[in-house]
Amino acid sequence: MTSTVPNAVEHADGQQPPITMFGPDFPYAYDDFLAHPAGLGQIPATEHGAEVAVIGGGLSGIVAAYELMKMGLRPVVYEADQIGGRLRTVGFDGCDPTLTAEMGAMRFPPSSTALQHYIDLVGLETRPFPNPLSEATPSTVVDLKGESHYAETVDDLPQVFRDVADAWNRCLEEGADFSAMNRALRERDVPRIREIWARLVEKLDNQTFYGFLCDSEAFRSFRHREIFGQVGFGTGGWDTDFPNSILEILRVVYTEADDHHRGIVGGSQQLPLRLWEREPQKTVHWPYGTSLASLHEGGAPRPAVTRLHRTAGDRITVTDADGAIRTYRAAVFTAQSWMLLSKIDCDDDLFPIDHWTAIERTHYMESSKLFVPVDRPFWRDKDEDTGRDVMSMTLTDRMTRGTYLLDDGPDRPAVICLSYTWCDDSLKWLPLSANERMEVMLKSLGEIYPKVDIRKHVIGSPVTVSWENEPYFMGAFKANLPGHYRYQRRLFTHFMQDRLPADKRGVFLAGDDISWTAGWAEGAVQTALNAVWGVMRHFGGTTDPANPGPGDRYDEIAPVELPED
Q1: Is residue 265 within 8 Å of residue 106, measured between CB atoms?
Q2: What's the pLDDT at 17?
Q3: Is there a contact between 337 and 514 (Cβ–Cβ < 8 Å)?
Q4: Parallel/antiparallel/unpaired status of strands 331-333 and 393-396
Q5: What are phi and psi of 418, to 5 degrees?
């Protein structure tokens, strides 16, 4: 619930250098790459207009397609469902169209600087997201074991919660060199980042998040570990992550991915949709006014891919749901990697066998949400007896786990995310319809707020999602288990195809599950840019010497390589 930066470095002027998702696995400055006036690279004029398949119209696919179009290639985007992927914003039937619910990504850290480049590019606004005890949240209620604690700041909570926060900070410092890594990331000190991380990867790859806590003297108390799991830090409880690799958690806290979140005004799906329609000021080959939409018949992507195989001349042949067959010299695959195992008929020789193993071992987290529209932000009313808000952002060990209150002002309709859950907590909702879920949630919240009749404020039907039940996802986001570092390295580094046999080149993996920061839109953007570099190289292109791309810098900053024997 509190900041995960106990000892951030400061400069002489007292200001902290900004932190970004610059490593620790691959300390490359994607934000600088995007901002450089030389651009991302160029391909030979003889290749202008060549088609490249982009499979998946989520953020990673749309970013990759947009940048490939600017280079003079012709991206052909395939999308089974809708543009946006897990940037999915929905409305409520019969309600004000400005009322929206974020079924997927809903909060973005300032350290996502490559993502912010595109948010700014398409003219979207962001605002603080009301996480537990954040400045944007009027009040928070922590409800554990039937006892509720009201707080406007962390100091309002009982001492045990502050003890738990302190234990987490000490655990990070003692077990993961937090201050040293925080300083190195802020200063973009590549040698120091690599020195610290190489040691930790070798030491901790086989360790679970929970085991890491148990090994710390700071968390010798089971009660502290239990509270930490239920309440956590940043966005709330983290016990659903306890079986995952501690390396996954360290990436989050080192880069402050769980702090100072902001939401996109009007909904996150606007980002890929606006990129789809955007006409870049500067493109190669294509006339002014060209957009991704204009390069596709009817302004829509091609339908779902049903078959992906290699054909003569190391070409990639794609069959879609309409039965159309097209052959390409290169393809970028950005859909969830499990689609290659289930929904798409694939040749084994698309990838080296160890990459197939990595895809099969990918571990996805489940996640469910349910939102309801309400007539106004009634939670800002004051209780006559206590003077407190009648309802608060809520963390609990009950079925709802996390409840978020979202509004655009006191006189406008508002939205409640009645429940946001992961893993086992998400699976508990899976058999229930939206209305059945809402009834259980209202009952749980009624036990926490017996004076509040939430139901009387509801003005529309609930909307819900269980990402594990979505046919083109089968999970919310990747989260490595202990021992998965080698698998993740294979997938992330796949864009470096000069090292692959000629008959294994041409398909480039991207998407947040390929990144080191799965579950964060920044990872989708970064791997899209890796794939763009790979495709550029595949077509004989180069970057400007003044703006080397991720592949140009690869040998200097390649991820730690653990022995395979």
Answers
A1: no
A2: 81
A3: yes
A4: unpaired
A5: -65, -30
Instruction: Measure Cα distances from 35 to 118, 241, 295, 301 in Å.
Output: 11, 35, 25, 28
Q: How many degrees, rounded to 5, is the angle at CA 485 between CA 483 and CA 491?
A: 130
pLDDT of 192 reads 97
Each residue of 7-41: pLDDT tens digit?
444 544 556 788 999 989 999 999 999 999 999 99
CA–CA gap between residue 461 and residue 388 (Å, rounded): 29
Percent of the chain with pLDDT over 70: 97
Name every residue whose Cβ is closer than 8 Å to that of residue 426 and which is 6 or more positions away in sequence.
366, 367, 368, 466, 467, 468, 476
Q: Which residues contact 104 (CB under 8 A, 6 or more apart)?
A: 84, 85, 86, 87, 88, 268, 465, 467, 476
CA separation for the pair 59, 517 (Å, rounded):
14
The pLDDT score that the predictor gives to residue 23 is 87
3 state DSSP class of 564: coil
- Cα Rg, the chain, nearest whole Å: 24
Please give the Cα distance from 415 to 430 (Å, whole number): 22
Q: By three-state DSSP, how is residue 495 classified?
A: helix
246-254 and 159-176 helices cross at what angle (nearest 10)? 100
What is the distance between the alpha carbons of residues 301 and 58, in angstroms, rounded to a whole number?
A: 12
CA pseudo-torsion sign 343, 349, 355, 360: positive
Cβ count near 433 (within 10 Å):
11
Round to the nearest angstrom and report the end-to-end CA distance of the chain.
41
DSSP codes of every residue in 28-88: --HHHHHH-TT-S-B--GGGTT-EEEEE--BHHHHHHHHHHHHTT-EEEEE-SS-TBTT--
Burial status of residue 124 (CB atoms within 10 A of its CB: 0-12, 13-18, 19 or more)? middle
Q: Evaluate if residue 4 carries a pLDDT over 60.
A: no
pLDDT for res 233: 67
Alpha carbons 268 and 56: distance in angstroms, whole number? 17
The whole model's pTM is what?
Answer: 0.96
Model confidence at 142: pLDDT above 50: yes
Q: Is the dihedral of CA 20, 21, 24, 26 positive or negative?
A: negative
Q: Is the dihedral of CA 182, 185, 186, 190 positive or negative?
A: positive
pLDDT in tens, 78-108: 999 999 999 999 999 999 999 999 999 999 9
Structure tokens, 524: 């989708």
Q: How many CA atoms are closer than 13 Å to the CA of 322, on its beta-carbon side?
A: 9
Q: How confident is the model at residue 2 (pLDDT cuts 50, 70, 90)?
A: very low
